[in-house]
């Protein structure tokens, strides 16, 4: 299943690149995600939780930040995980590319090759619905990411002063600090928002 998304964030290209490569810092921005172990600079372990009605799915897995191209501001994330109750597995290759969208804006293009197996694969049969649910998750991620970027603005208490010459995002991250527990994302809430978005598109309402 191929999923494609694009969005803009309110910061310049170079700063956006540094922040998005700082996995410990941005992992909490993804709804339902929990970073549990930093293996090394490019390899991580974590959990992803989502609740569909009374059923709570929790995937334990690992991710690799691979093929990092600083010159072209692109990278690949290879992730895989399995539900802790044996109901299925998920594997994804995520390619993201950044480009300037102005003095203080960056465009992010994301392409995801997602493969679901086992019982959980039943949710992937309606690929359009999965795509809309992914849209909702991306929207929440971007909103949370904007909050992180605000911390780097001049005068912000988190960093203070001008970001130029300040420690990089990877330097300021605290890998030893315990990651916040993943709160399951409500699948029902996402489902209704996704269905609403699909219906509006079908009838030309947005």
In short:
By secondary structure, the protein is of the alpha+beta class.
Shape: globular
pLDDT averaged over residues = 75
Please identify which CATH superfamily we are dealing with: START domain
Distance between the termini: 24 Å
Strand runs, count: 8
- Indicate the structural class: alpha+beta
| Percent helix range | 25-40%
Give the number of helices. 5
**Could you describe the largest sheet, including whether it forms a barrel?**
8 strands, mixed
CATH architecture descriptor text: 2-Layer Sandwich
Order of helices and strands: EHHEEEEEEHHEH
CATH topology: Alpha-D-Glucose-1,6-Bisphosphate, Chain A, domain 4
CATH class: Alpha Beta
**Poorly predicted runs:** 157-181, 186-192
Our count of domains comes out at 1
Question: What is the radius of gyration computed over CA atoms, rounded to a whole number of angstroms?
Answer: 17 Å
Bin the strand percentage: 35-45%
Characterize the structure shown:
With about 210 residues, the chain is of the alpha+beta class. The chain has a single domain (about 1-200), classed as Alpha-D-Glucose-1,6-Bisphosphate, Chain A, domain 4. Helices cover about 25% and strands about 35% of the residues. It is built from 5 helices and 8 strands, in the order βααββββββααβα. It has helices at about 15-20, 25, 125-150, 170, 185-200; strands at about 1-10, 35-40, 45-50, 55-70, 75-85, 90-100, 105-115, 185. A hairpin with a 5-residue loop joins strand 5 (about 75-85) and strand 6. The chain is globular, with a radius of gyration of 17 Å.
């Amino acid at each position: 299943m191929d999923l494609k998304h694009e969005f803009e964030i309110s910061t310049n290209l170079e700063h956006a690149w540094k922040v998005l490569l700082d996995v410990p810092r941005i992992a909490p921005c993804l709804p339902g995600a929990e970073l549990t172990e930093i293996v090394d600079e490019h390899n991580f372990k974590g959990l992803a939780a989502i609740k569909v009605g009374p059923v709570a799915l929790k995937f334990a897995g690992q991710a690799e930040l691979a093929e990092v191209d600083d010159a072209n501001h692109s990278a690949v994330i290879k992730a895989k995980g399995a539900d802790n109750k044996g109901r299925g597995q998920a594997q994804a290759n995520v390619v993201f590319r950044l480009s300037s969208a102005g003095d203080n804006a960056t465009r992010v293009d994301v392409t995801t090759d997602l493969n679901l197996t086992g019982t959980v694969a039943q949710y992937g049969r309606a690929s359009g619905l999965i795509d809309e649910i992914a849209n909702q998750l991306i929207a929440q991620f971007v909103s949370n990411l904007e909050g992180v970027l605000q911390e780097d603005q001049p005068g912000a208490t988190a960093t203070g002063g001008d970001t130029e010459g300040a420690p990089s995002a990877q330097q300021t991250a605290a890998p030893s600090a315990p990651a916040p527990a993943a709160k399951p994302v409500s699948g029902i809430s996402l489902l209704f928002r996704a269905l609403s978005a699909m219906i509006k598109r079908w009838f030309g309402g947005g």
